Please model this.
Amino acid sequence: MSVYTDQERDTIRNAAFGALTLVSAADPGFLSMFKESMAGAKALAAAPANLQDVLKSGGMPPIPKGSQEEIKASVLAALKQSKDIIMAKAPQDLQPFQAVIAEAINQVATAHEGISGTERQVIDEVRAAVGMA
Model:
C-alpha cells in the first residue's frame, strides 16, 4: 500500500480508527469502552502487512472532536473517501481493507455483552460507507 500519499494514508488510518470509535461510542460506559478499544486494536493489528503499514503510519490518529453526530458524519465521510482512494490507487486492496474494518468493528461490538441495537446500526453504516452490503 505504499502507493498512497501521506494525506491519503492519514485519511485511511483516521477512518479505520474512527470506525472503532463510532462502534464503541454506541455502547457507552468506561468498562465497555476499554474492552472494545483493546479488541478493535487487536483486529487492526492482525491486518495484512501492507495494510498495517498504512494503519501504523503517522502514529495514533487524533481523537475526533465535535458532537456525536458531527463525529459520526466525519468518520463515515472519511471511510467513503478511503474506499475511493483505495479503488483509485490499489483496487486489489479494497477487499482486504473492507475485511479488516468489518472484523475490527465486529470485535469491538462483541467485546462487552454482545452487540446492542445501536451498535448494529452503526456497524451497518460503517459497512455501507466502505462499500459492503
